[in-house]
Specification:
There is one protein chain. The protein is α/β, with parallel strands linked by helices. It has 5 helices and 11 strands, in the order H-H-H-E-H-E-E-E-E-E-E-E-E-H-E-E. The strands form 3 sheets. It has a 7-stranded mixed beta sheet. It has a two-stranded antiparallel ribbon with strand order 4-5. Strands 8-9 form a two-stranded antiparallel sheet. The longest helix has 19 residues, at 34-52. The protein is globular and about 50 Å long. Bound molecules: the ligand Nc1nc2c(c(=O)[nH]1)N(C=O)[C@@H](CNc1ccc(C(=O)N[C@@H](CCC(=O)O)C(=O)O)cc1)CN2 and adenosine-5'-triphosphate (ATP). The site of the ligand Nc1nc2c(c(=O)[nH]1)N(C=O)[C@@H](CNc1ccc(C(=O)N[C@@H](CCC(=O)O)C(=O)O)cc1)CN2 has 18 residues, from strand 2 and helix 5. Its EC number is 6.3.3.2. Its cofactor is Mg(2+).
């Protein structure tokens, strides 16, 4: 029986973060448990290596299947603004499909990192227009006003059964989607080998509406 203070484990009067007592609407900032952060880092490295171990020819064949899957999911692209990406580290190269969107009366855009910790900005771009080197040497459109895509195609490093995406660890897509005034259709793309049982979703992770891989069947 606890008869004296000495028997009761020491406790703080308030939890260490007491902002919610001052402002009931306050939510703790997005932080990730250290073990999840470590796990994600290791899993990213494993998945990127696994993807790079596939031959360039096999990756190109899978990208062609992904393009068919995107057409099946999206249907008519005319009048749509679709954001894609400049491929690196073995991501599916969708540049041929990007050109075909423009041929069919759609428009396309590329993301650019304005600053680490800030949302991405999308700039209209199509084959042949000038590019320059952005952060991490990723090519970005040299000019053009920001656009708001109707459809965001997001390359995944890993994807789980609830369509939560593991990316390169910058939090860019989560921040960007959270900040967009109109919710676009968000399609994660990647290879079957990138499926994982869970990404340990955190409060700020936003799931993809769809995931399209080389195994997609309409
Ligand atoms: N092709 C392509 N372009 C894209 C993205 C993408 O996923 N694919 N992005 C999608 O967001 C943005 C770039 N995001 C990136 C985020 C992090 C790193 C990176 O190299 N990060 C560090 C580690 C970061 C950390 O773990 O804290 C590294 O790997 O050394 C690269 C690009 C915009 N452009
Ligand atoms: N909406 C947000 N607001 C503030 N911080 C965020 C938001 N979304 C993510 N973050 C921060 O970004 C960091 C990286 O997130 P995460 O591991 O999910 O990146 P990722 O989805 O793999 O990367 P990327 O989208 O750049 O490919 C996390 O530490 C998280 O705190």
């Amino acid at each position: 029986m606890a008869t004296s203070d000495d028997d009761i484990p020491a406790q703080y009067a308030s939890p260490p973060c007491f902002m919610h007592e001052l402002d009931p609407a306050f939510r703790a900032p997005a932080t990730m448990p250290a073990e999840v952060r470590r796990w994600r880092k290791a899993e990213r490295e494993r998945l990127i290596q696994a993807r790079l171990a596939v031959s360039a020819d096999a990756r190109a064949a899978m990208a062609a299947r992904i393009a068919e899957g995107l057409d099946a999911v999206i249907g008519d692209v005319a009048g749509k603004m679709v954001s894609l990406y400049w491929p690196f580290r073995g991501e599916p190269d969708m540049r041929p499909w990007m050109a075909s969107v423009n041929t069919r009366g759609g428009r396309t855009a590329l993301p650019l990192v304005v600053e680490k910790g800030r949302p991405l900005v999308f700039r209209a771009w199509k084959t042949g227009e000038p590019l320059e080197k952005g952060v991490w040497n990723i090519p970005i459109p040299s000019q053009g006003d920001p656009v708001l895509p109707d459809i965001v195609i997001s390359p995944v490093v890993g994807i789980d059964p609830d369509n939560y995406r593991l990316g390169y660890g910058g939090g860019f897509y989560d921040r960007t989607l959270a900040a967009m005034p109109r919710k676009p259709l968000v399609i994660g793309i990647g290879y079957e080998l990138q499926r994982i049982p869970t990404i340990y979703p955190q409060q700020y992770d936003i799931p993809m509406n769809r995931f399209v891989s080389e195994a997609f069947r309409a």
